[in-house]
Design a protein that fits this description.
Layout lengths: L2 H12 L6 H10 L6 H9 L2 H11 L13 H8 L1 H17 L13 H19 L5 H10 L4 H8 L3 H11 L3 H8 L4 H11 L4 H9 L8 H16 L6 H5 L2 H16 L5 H13 L5
Helix pairs in contact: 1-12, 2-6, 3-5, 4-6, 5-6, 6-8, 7-8, 7-14, 7-17, 8-13, 12-13, 14-16
């Protein structure tokens, strides 16, 4: 990318609305080991509608708590501080992801958010299977991995068919097609946006490398592969016409490669089942 192009994309980034206050506040707590229950509780209570949705989701069948949870504090104690933060972020992020992303094969205005929620849920269960510390951190990474698509969504609509042909016949990722046609990928523009928003380094690394995890530095490669695996498996939940032409099959092959790298080659179906449960609670939000 030459200097003129970089300046143009930077101007677009700078004109992007800031993250909702609640999102930026909760993300700062993501890397704050001193964050307390009271701090998170006070943050959430400033948004009554958000509290109602958090409690509705916390009481869903997905989390399976045997009795009703009625307060934020109780939800934090029962499900954990990090889980409640993840739920609140998922709900809050929805508003900025409700854009037309038909260029990326999503058929509804909620498509990007649902894809992100699926990836987040998949990343969480993979992190648990691997016994990684703080699986909710991976949930948040999955939730934000495709944030660059909100910038490129209006441009990519006219290239939908070309992107699909490149994927099916030339084995090119969407990001490779974007670079060819637009001059920048959603990974790169998403990383620029993450830096502009001062998101945690863990998140910006995931955004940059999730489509090509083996290009990531060795010290963060495993973390990226966790997100990449969930991202590939999320394509088991696409429209039937895309399944029929082989999109899910190709994605699953890539997921299997990643699962082998992670040392859990036989876990694909169990991960997909857990992701399906995550999709079932999306109407709760």
């Amino acid at each position: 990318m030459d200097e003129e192009q970089l300046l143009r994309w930077n101007k677009i980034i700078e004109s992007t609305p800031p993250l909702p206050f609640i999102v930026s506040t909760l993300l700062k707590k993501l890397e704050d080991p001193e964050a307390s229950i009271r701090e998170i509780e006070e943050t959430l209570e400033k948004e009554p509608l958000l509290v109602a949705k958090v409690l509705k989701m916390a009481n869903s069948a997905y989390y399976g708590f045997p009795r009703s949870i009625t307060t934020v504090r109780e939800a934090i104690i029962v499900l954990g501080l990090n889980t409640i933060r993840s739920i609140a972020l998922a709900i809050s992020i929805k508003s900025i992801m409700n854009v037309d992303v038909s260029g990326y094969w999503f058929s509804s205005i909620k498509g990007l958010w649902e894809h992100s929620l699926l990836t987040a849920g998949g990343a969480r269960v993979i992190a648990k299977k691997l016994r990684l510390s703080d699986p909710e951190k991976y949930f948040v990474g999955g939730l934000l991995h495709d944030i660059g698509k909100i910038i490129l969504s209006s441009i990519t609509k006219e290239y939908k068919v070309q992107f699909l042909k490149n994927f099916l016949f030339y084995n090119k990722t969407i990001s490779q097609s974007e670079e060819e046609v637009i001059g920048i990928s959603h990974n790169t523009i998403g990383n620029m946006l993450a830096n502009y928003w001062n998101l945690p380094q863990f998140i910006s690394d995931i955004i940059l490398y999730h489509d090509n995890p083996f290009d990531a530095p060795e010290e963060i490669r495993k973390d990226i592969v966790v997100i990449s695996t969930a991202n590939e498996l999320s394509y088991n939940f696409i429209p039937e016409n895309l399944v029929e032409i082989g999109v899910s099959e190709k994605r699953n092959k890539r997921a299997d490669e990643y699962l082998k790298y992670l040392g859990i080659p036989n876990e694909r179906e169990s991960i997909i089942k857990t992701m399906e449960k995550m999709l079932e609670i999306s109407p709760e939000v």
